């Protein structure tokens, strides 16, 4: 600070922030548990004592690292209040000369006993004995008062002193720091220098302990440069205090730099650094450092063990935990209650409750912390045990404290057990703990999670004292219950009550902005964040990026991203995710490359997002490279990554890669199975999807609604109504039928199988319908040739105030086309723009062409296409080509094909097929042969196939290849004879001179073979249902109509363009497809 005075504004903001935040204000990370520890006094806020250990560790580090607490090193356990009483009694006895040493010893004893009352007695005795304390004794008085809880008395002593030395200042500074009054500490630190005193090591250590939040990092850095200038950097205690400060301010990098540059380290410095890593969740680095500590020959102490045990956070770390436990036994520290408590919490986190309990039971003198650790360890999974222990604890004479109640309330919250929570609440009221800010906050969270906003509000309003954590809890509660407005009101009230919002407040509010409609709110919070200078907190900045991402404001997200001073992994992840969310896949991938080039390693979220981007880019090569990086990063066993890989490979068109990833997944969860099912659907391997589903059931995995949606989609594609009905039954049994997504899939399945009555039944039973539900039903009616019903349902949809979308419009336009109402179609097309404010799509225009085509207005249709003259008008020309086929307009058909060949560089087989049919219908067999030859040369003459499901088995018939099923050939012959008998005549158009061509007519139409098989293998009265992969040909269509009448059977044939319901010699398509 030499030479540069900070601006008053800087101080105002630092001061207000310090005041509220440093004073025991939890700065909880989102996950929930956080404690605030301040020089031996631990403030736990809204916490599960699970992570008691590292905090306790940190406390000890500070005790041993700072001088004013040196006396506290004398174990408190050995202290019995007796000697102090003896001491004060002695004071009253005559003949005992109270001298400086005597008072000093008494004061020291008061500090150890943390007894303000006794301390005051000693002070009073001095006054009544008119004993003038010297600087040394005054300093001790300051220290005693501040440590025993009365900073005011300490300040009175300090102010009354005529001569102050650096120790006096230090004692007062550390007192303020201890009481969380950072601003006063800072002010005093500078006042001391103005009064000509040079700060020494202890001054720096004291002032550094006042810097405990990320917000004051800049200030901490200033003190650091101060220290460097004063030449105290090589002091091991000062360096350790610096490490502590940087760790608490969230800058591990700077802490590590100090640590690495230390010439001499003691166990406290090592432990401080290890603890820093543990606090920031970097267990890996903490373990590495602990190994180094051991190799350095330094003996870890109980604090080191308590800290490193905090690095074992999940069941994967159990092995490490067991090793540490063995080491602790060896070091003979097992009975240390601090270590024991840390062991209990460690085992609980690692999921080994039996071990935790064993440690607990073996502890010779468990303290309240031990009980709390064990209760918290039981957690929601063992609620009854936790409550039993709670009763035992009270029987053994341990009074529950705020942590006990907070743990139990958290358990009730997780179990959403409102009754238990209320019982506990009444006990809390009886024991007068309700006014405690931690307990009240836990009550709010409990009520929030148990669904009672009302009760939460009551508790909140009745709190005598609120801190930022309580405000945060209530804000989160409002957001959780969907009252974001109230959350904002509370936020504003918080400000009016002069409570400084912390990063949790902002993150909670940001996370409540989930869609573009919330953008204004999000921007308002951004303003507040800037106002409070909170953007320097990466958690806040990253949440801000994510918020802008969700609200669709990529530019704003990017701006925040580039404003971050020290970007961390979370910042990169947030930005990449935002890009992916909005389809800026290329940018997402580029950013990932940039991140890698800056030496970033990435975690699973990075890879998941990048893989999503690649899937959307359909870049198989890049996908394979990232797969390699995933393996390199050792993440190839992570189920979420594997599932994302399956999705990526499927979208990039490599079903084989997708399956080979899937095959190697060790323990597949339902999400993983769903990904593979979707992959099969994506590549149109419906039958494989159904087989996979069976395998999934055999392996005992329970399908969820997404699974059923997938298999129902497969059934819809395959026209597999028998399978579909079975799934429908299963869904009814599992009571999953009412799921909107599943219902929509059922409607689609039934209607794509031509079974509208069942589709309708599902629709009518739905309790909640969305746009997709209506679309599925409307499209079903339209495709099955009931355009008038489709239009009726559209009216219903509008009356139900469900907004239509582009898919709805396509169905409506097709319905008008089908009904031959080209004028209405045209009006409707106009209304898409005017009423719905949407740009009609290519598909909508193609429907319009079809409407004109149906009405024999071919010229108008052509003009319409020219007028639209869109860049991608292929669909419209294809639509016109169909019209030409129906109306035998060869000339226009050739124009259309020319256009199509222009648009699509590669002539599609479907277009050639259409033209061939048009030539055949016109009797231009030579042209047919030419096209056929060309197609054969180009390898476009793919076999056609048609699939029919009989008795839940699939039978596929290919052109020119009879399947070996018995009776089909006979059936075909019988069919032909029967048709001839009933007077079926081949269309003269289709009477080529070559008689063999005529014979082959049947075998060219796989749908005829499938229908023949169906007639043979299904009982009369059952609809014959098949799905073909190429449009039904003209002669085949005529024959199917004839068969439906001659055999008196309903026939359903679905081709890629149209659904044909044949009945009594008529097709639902009205002979237009
Ligand atoms: Zn038809």
TrEMBL record:
Signal peptide range in chain numbering: 1-27
PROSITE patterns from the UniProt entry: PPR
UniProt entry tagged with the keyword Nucleotide-binding: no
The organism's place on the tree of life at top rank: Eukaryota
Domain DYW: from-to ranges: 994-1073
Repeat region (PPR), residues: 134-164, 165-199, 235-265, 266-300, 367-400, 436-466, 467-501, 537-571, 669-703, 704-738, 739-769, 770-804
Keywords, ordered alphabetically: Repeat, Signal
GO biological process: RNA modification
InterPro entries per record: DYW_dom, E_motif, PPR_At4g14850-like_plant, PPR_rpt, TPR-like_helical_dom_sf
Gene Ontology molecular functions: RNA binding; zinc ion binding
The name this protein goes by in its record: DYW domain-containing protein
Phylogenetic lineage: Eukaryota, Viridiplantae, Streptophyta, Embryophyta, Bryophyta
């Amino acid at each position: 600070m030499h030479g540069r005075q900070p601006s008053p504004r800087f101080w105002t903001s630092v001061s207000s922030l310090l005041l509220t935040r440093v004073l025991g204000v939890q700065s909880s990370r989102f996950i929930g548990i956080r404690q605030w520890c301040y020089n031996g006094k631990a403030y736990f806020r809204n916490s599960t004592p699970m992570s008691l250990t590292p905090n306790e560790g940190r406390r000890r580090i500070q005790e041993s690292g700072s001088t004013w607490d040196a006396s506290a090193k004398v174990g408190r356990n050995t202290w019995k209040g007796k000697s102090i009483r003896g001491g004060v009694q002695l004071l009253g006895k005559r003949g005992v000369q109270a001298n400086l040493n005597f008072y000093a010893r008494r004061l020291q004893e008061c500090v150890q006993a943390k007894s303000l009352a006794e301390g005051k007695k000693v002070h009073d005795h001095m006054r009544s004995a008119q004993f003038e304390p010297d600087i040394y004794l005054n300093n001790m008085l300051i220290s005693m008062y501040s440590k025993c809880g009365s900073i005011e008395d300490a300040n009175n002593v300090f102010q009354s002193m005529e001569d102050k030395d650096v120790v006096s200042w230090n004692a007062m500074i550390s007192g303020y720091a201890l009481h969380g009054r950072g601003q006063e500490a800072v002010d005093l630190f500078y006042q001391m220098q103005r009064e000509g005193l040079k700060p020494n090591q202890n001054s720096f250590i004291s002032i550094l302990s006042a810097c405990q939040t990320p917000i004051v990092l800049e200030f901490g850095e200033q003190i650091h440069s101060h220290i460097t200038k004063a030449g105290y950097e090589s002091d091991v205690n000062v360096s350790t205090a610096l490490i502590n400060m940087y760790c608490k301010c969230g800058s591990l990098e700077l802490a590590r730099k100090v640590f690495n540059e230390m010439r001499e380290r003691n166990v406290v410095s090592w432990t401080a650094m290890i603890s820093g890593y543990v606090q920031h969740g970097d267990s890996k680095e903490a373990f590495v450092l602990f190994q180094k500590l051991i190799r350095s020959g330094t003996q870890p102490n109980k604090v080191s063990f308590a800290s490193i045990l905090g690095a074992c956070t999940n069941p994967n770390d159990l092995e490490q935990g067991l090793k540490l436990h063995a080491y602790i036994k060896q070091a003979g520290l097992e009975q240390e209650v601090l270590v024991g408590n840390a062991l209990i919490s460690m085992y609980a986190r690692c999921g080994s409750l039996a071990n935790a309990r064993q440690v607990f039971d073996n502890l010779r003198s468990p303290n309240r912390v031990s009980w709390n650790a064990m209760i918290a360890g039981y957690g929601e999974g063992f609620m009854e045990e936790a409550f039993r222990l709670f009763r035992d604890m009270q029987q053994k004479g341990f009074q529950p404290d705020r942590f006990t109640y907070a743990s139990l309330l958290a358990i009730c919250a997780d179990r959403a057990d409102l009754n238990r929570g209320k019982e506990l609440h009444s006990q809390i009221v009886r024991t007068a703990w309700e006014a405690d800010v931690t307990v009240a906050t836990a009550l709010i969270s409990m009520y929030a999670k148990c669904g009672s906003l009302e009760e939460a509000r009551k508790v909140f309003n009745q709190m005598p004292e609120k801190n930022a954590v309580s405000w945060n809890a209530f804000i989160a509660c409002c957001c959780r219950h969907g009252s974001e407005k109230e959350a904002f009101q509370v936020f504003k009230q918080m400000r009016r009550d002069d409570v400084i919002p912390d990063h949790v407040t902002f993150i909670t509010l940001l996370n409540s902005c989930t869609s573009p409609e919330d953008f204004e709110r999000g921007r308002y919070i951004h303003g507040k964040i800037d106002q409070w200078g909170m953007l320097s907190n990466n958690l806040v900045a990253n949440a801000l990026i994510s918020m802008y991402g969700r609200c669709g404001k990529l530019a704003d997200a990017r701006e925040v991203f580039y404003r971050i001073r020290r970007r961390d992994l979370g910042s990169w992840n947030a930005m990449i995710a935002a890009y992916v969310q909005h389809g800026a896949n290329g940018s997402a991938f580029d950013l990932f490359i940039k991140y890698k080039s800056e030496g970033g390693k990435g975690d699973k979220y990075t890879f998941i997002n990048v893989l999503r981007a690649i899937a959307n880019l359909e870049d198989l090569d890049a996908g394979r490279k990232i797969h390699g990086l995933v393996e390199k990063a050792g993440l190839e066993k992570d189920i979420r990554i594997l599932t994302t890989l399956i999705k990526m490979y499927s979208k990039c068109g490599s079903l084989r890669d997708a399956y080979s990833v899937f095959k190697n997944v060790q323990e597949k969860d339902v999400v993983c199975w769903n990904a593979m099912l979707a992959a099969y659907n994506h590549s149109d391997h419906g039958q494989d999807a159904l087989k996979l589903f069976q395998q999934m059931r055999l392996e005992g995995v329970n399908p969820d609604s997404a699974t059923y949606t997938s298999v129902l989609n497969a059934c819809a594609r395959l026209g597999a109504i028998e399978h579909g009905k079975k799934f429908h039954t299963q869904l009814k049994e599992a009571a999953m039928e009412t799921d909107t997504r599943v219902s929509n899939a059922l409607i689609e399945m039934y209607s794509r199988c031509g079974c509208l009555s069942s589709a309708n039944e599902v629709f009518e039973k739905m309790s909640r319908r969305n746009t997709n539900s209506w679309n599925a039903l409307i499209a079903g009616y339209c495709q099955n040739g009931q355009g008038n019903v489709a239009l009726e349902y559209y009216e219903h949809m509008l009356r139900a105030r469900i907004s239509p979308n582009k898919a709805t419009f396509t169905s409506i336009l097709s319905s008008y086309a089908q009904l031959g109402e080209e004028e209405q179609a045209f009006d409707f097309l106009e209304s898409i723009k005017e009423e719905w404010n949407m740009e009609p799509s290519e598909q909508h225009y193609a429907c319009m062409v079809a409407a004109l085509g149906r009405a024999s207005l071919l010229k108008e249709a052509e003009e319409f296409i020219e007028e639209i003259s869109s860049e991608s008008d292929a669909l419209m020309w294809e639509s016109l080509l169909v019209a030409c086929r129906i109306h035998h307009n060869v000339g226009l058909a050739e124009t259309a094909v020319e256009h199509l060949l222009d648009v699509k560089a590669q002539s599609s087989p479907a277009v050639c097929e259409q033209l061939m049919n048009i030539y055949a219908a016109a009797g231009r067999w030579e042209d047919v042969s030419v096209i056929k030859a060309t197609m054969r040369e180009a390898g476009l003459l793919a076999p056609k196939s048609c699939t029919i499901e009989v008795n839940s088995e699939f039978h596929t018939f290919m052109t020119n290849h009879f399947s070996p099923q018995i009776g089909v050939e006979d059936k075909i012959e019988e069919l032909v004879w029967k048709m001839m008998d009933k007077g079926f005549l081949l269309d003269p158009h289709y009477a080529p001179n070559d008689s063999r061509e005529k014979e082959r007519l049947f075998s060219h139409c796989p749908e005829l073979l499938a229908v023949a098989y169906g007639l043979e293998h299904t009982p009369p009265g059952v609809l014959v249902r098949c799905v073909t992969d190429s449009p039904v040909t003209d002669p085949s269509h005529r024959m199917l109509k004839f068969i439906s009448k001659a055999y008196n059977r309903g026939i359903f044939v679905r081709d890629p363009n149209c659904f044909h319901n044949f009945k009594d010699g008529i097709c639902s398509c009205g002979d237009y497809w």
